[in-house]
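Researcher: I've got a protein sequence and the SMILES for calcium ion. Could you write out the 3D structure of the bound complex as structure tokens? I'd like something to compare against our soaking experiments later this week.
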Amino acid sequence: MAMAPVLNICVVLFFSILAVSCDVGDIVQEQRSESPESQGTDCGCQGLKREVSVGVSDVNTLDHHDDANIYSKTANEGPDKTESDVRSKLVLLQGGWFLMGTDDPGIPQDGEGPQRKVKLDAFYIEEHEVTNQQFQHFTNQTGYITEAERFGDSFVFEGLLSEEVKSTLSHAVAAAPWWSPVKGADWRHPEGPDSTIHNRMNHPALHVSWDDARAYCQWAKRRLPTEAEWELACRGGLQDRMYPWGNKLMPRGQHYANLWQGDFPNHNTAEDGYANTSPVMSFPANGFGLYDMVGNAWEWTADWWTVHHSAEDKFNPKGPESGTDRVKKGGSYMCHKSYCYRYRCAARSQNTPDSSASNLGFRCASDVDP
Ligand SMILES: *[C@@H]1O[C@H](CO)[C@@H](O)[C@H](O)[C@H]1NC(C)=O
Ligand SMILES: [Ca+2]
Ligand SMILES: [Ca+2]
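Model: Sure. Here is the predicted complex with calcium ion in place.
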């Protein structure tokens, strides 16, 4: 039993393209003494974790469970469902039974299995990732300040940084050196202070923490989807398939998602048209009319993270009661089979709720179409 975490790290490193031998005892040792959860720092898809001790004034009073009610009078009212409604269209999913997870996991240590029968009530989910335009509308109305802005930095993929920003970097993430905490990186400045979203208003909002995503969805009178809801939505009505569109990554040679082509992390051929994020809805919708369920930006879900799931049937599962990390789904424009084979509906990963990064966004769900 005591060896299990070491094995996990080995397997993860195997999936990463780090050409190091699997002599990772030291890494495990060091990370354990820090925190049992920090083993995620081995992989580019997870573990972008903030130091806990950073003092940040609680300007948004996020500790209170009424985020949406604290900004201003207009914020309390939320967006109207009128012609000026800037929120995404909701798609009604009928729920019912579906098969969640897989017995043929691409990355077993992520807890992709076992496959289990899950029954969900009907729910609504937004047809695309929340965009910069939508997020700006929210911050304009509420004055909301994201956690990346409050902390003063966020994780950015180095391949997208300007030479100027690169020259100011202090350190990268151990064993995932393509990630750097960049000062001044936030949703308005996805690659740091010298970048802008002006020409990307219809791209997914990035550098949004779980707490930020929750605040947006509350303001929108919606909520984050549970992992089970997200996965049912991803599957698009197909049963036991890897991708939202089937089992073949590129049917008829076509790209169905914004992923990484080429050699990660040094060469992105952008054969799918995008080396970075793409405008939402640039790739075909799945059978439910939902876009970018895999690829483009990772998406937060409501659930706490665990890798242990029973094979029993479940009804409206909501994940563990508590935890340290939240579940994210779908992979991103940075995912390549060689290191982040997570652009599958059953795939999953995690981050602490205050983490943010240049490949992580969200979409909201709802019980009603208000
Ligand atoms: C937010 O406010 C800025 C500054 O007033 C404005 O330029 C921008 O169009 C607003 N964005 C949205 C989505 O309303
Ligand atoms: Ca791409
Ligand atoms: Ca996505």
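Model: Confidence is low (pLDDT under 50) at residues 1-43, 52-59, 61-75. The pocket of 2-acetamido-2-deoxy-beta-D-glucopyranose (ligand 1) is lined by residues 133, 136-137, 140 (CB under 6 Å).
Researcher: Great, I'll pass this along to the crystallography team.
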